[in-house]
Amino acid sequence: MKTDVVVIGAGVIGGAVAFELAKAGRSVVIVDKGSAAGAGSTSASSAIIRFSYSTLDAVLMAWESAPMWENWAGYLGVNDPDGMAKFIRTGYLVYRTEGYSGEAVRQIWDEIGIPYEVLSAEQLRKKFPALDSGSYWPPKKIDDPAFGDDAVGELSGLYDPLSGFMDDPMLAAHNYVYAAKHHGAETRFKSEVVSIDNDGKKITGVTLASGEKIEAPIVINAAGPHASKINRMAGVAAEMNIRHRPLRQEVYVAPAPDGFKLEDDAPVVADLDTGIYFRPHPGGTLNLGGTEPACDELHWVEDADDWRQETTVEIWETMMLRLARRMPNFGVPVSPSGIGALYDATDDWVPIYDRSSLDGFFM
After folding, report:
1. Does domain 5-47+168-242+349-362 have CATH number 3.50.50.60?
2. CATH class (in words) of the domain with range 89-163+244-346
3. Which end of the chain has a smaller Cβ tally under 10 Å, C or N?
4. φ and ψ at 50, to 5 degrees?
């Protein structure tokens, strides 16, 4: 078959790209080796909608995208019969600690006009009484003798009132793909790309493991943790100045203590002081993950199809006990509830949106 564009990956990024292209009148085929939209790394996302990024471009993109998440059905223009994801506004609190002052992002917020408050330790305790404002810097492993030391000072914070999260990231990706199909896009699930076809100078299409060839002048790599493999397949990996590769992480669900539930107006929290982030979730629970502090080993994965998906006791205990430091009323569960996940991470943690020297191949 022939099409204008092949999008590799049906996660939230691939779905968004396919939707916008199809809406603009392009013929699009979405190819994913998984069984459904958003079934890969998107399904393990905490789906946080925030504006605290390290570059102006990233902050501006997040800020300009926010109204689309807030008016999700209106933006897509259709209602998915399988349900619609929903944006939940909570606000976003980031602790200002020795490792993160927040001044760089404040300058960007001021330039763009994003509203925020600087909360003193006293104001922070008053606004969010479930949270401890003590400083425990730097983040530590739980077997570090200093892990249980008393706070060495108090923290202030930056709070923006407009951030939040999407309640179901996999459903959001499904909504994107449904909307793309509404505009004529086609899908190929359980279909693995085995060749990025080209004539040495420009893209000519892709070949699937089934033997099917899809001719297209444009191929967009949105394959998440498989993206580096696709770039190698296209022969463009060697020219890249920024590497990217699969990173294994673990994300947990735990009962939210009193004072940190959605009905308590609990915010999304970025706590680089202890090395975690967390947010409330419907049903009286919270989601929790790590911020990759220097004391934690990064688990890079060579093969995105061969890795441990189960959670580990060591990481679970670390996350739970760090959370208990920040929320004194948190009761550590007796057993873990969470998943292992793969993310596509770059050397500088900034996403790649670029074209390559191979005409028609984008990533």
Report:
1. yes
2. alpha beta
3. N
4. -140, 175
